[in-house]
């Protein structure tokens, strides 16, 4: 046998031993040296790509695993790791076909069926996603994440009784109690004071890359323009604008040319990165809204909160803090979703809060605000139906 082939074979099995013992860095080194001796060999490409996946080196893993499946289209494990590496890079469009190929070639664990379901859901195929979740549960009926994902899909499809059953099952099997009690509260007509911070933070960290395309283009969101229109229509210039829940900076982009200073606050670091790229904010702060307002020393003459309070809940502390920060004669402008009835804050099955006019007027009076305007108009569209909202301007 050729010495280079013999050496390659030795390195390959040495790499396998390291890999099976969880020693991924030594395994990587063996497979890399092996590949130098036998370039393009599918078994080596696959093992190196899978090892790099376990080392969380996503870009390198994707490159090698793509070469692997091109050379050996039947390599189920390479397809599975390729899909998971794409998922780690939030490239769901590429992840979906890789997962589908993996489950077609060989039996896969529930984790992969869950990932396939998420990819199909992001591609807009709810029924295919449901089929993947059900397959995960057929393989492991005790899989709490599968019950949770299924519940979320049922809630989005407005099959609320089924969603409640799924969340209850997930909770019983050990799913995060704080999150799942919040999900269940939205379906039972309960109204917790506030959502879990990690729910909102994770939601918008995940949402950030597609936020504006989805919200503005698909959901017809216009709240930022409607809210700011009356405030920027004139010669007034704002000394300091405080943009609460600034997100990707939709409000900031409109307000920047009318403000001497512009400060944005958001709980999502990924959203703040999008806002920072606009280059319009003098300061961006990563913080929970309540924590920021409790400690803030900023003095502002305009405080904005566009499409923010739907993820806050009760607003007593917000009003109190804004009243402290706002300059005399300053403006507090915000939007809320308006409920069909009731006098208090309501958590909807959408996991968004709605705030009635009477509640807002009571808070304004309690905290020393005058209501300068309150306008009813849609905030966005959901399933082609307008979501009623209130545009509120306090002084």
Structural features, described:
With 395 residues, the chain is of the alpha/beta class. The protein has two domains: 3-188, Tetratricopeptide repeat domain (Serine Threonine Protein Phosphatase 5, Tetratricopeptide repeat), CATH 1.25.40; 203-394, 3-Layer(aba) Sandwich (Rossmann fold), CATH 3.40.50. It is built from 19 helices and nine strands. The strands form two sheets. A seven-stranded mixed beta sheet has the order 3-2-1-4-5-9-8. The chain has a two-stranded antiparallel ribbon with strand order 6-7. β2, α16 (269-278) and β3 form a beta-alpha-beta unit. It is elongated.
Summary of the model, kept short:
The protein has helices at 3-20, 24-37, 42-54, 58-71, 76-88, 92-105, 110-122, 126-139, 144-156, 160-172, 177-188, 197-207, 211-218, 223-232, 250-255, 269-278, 289-295, 316-325, 357-366, and strands at residues 238-244, 259-266, 283-286, 300-305, 326-337, 346-347, 353-354, 371-382, 385-394. By secondary structure, it is α/β, with parallel strands linked by helices.
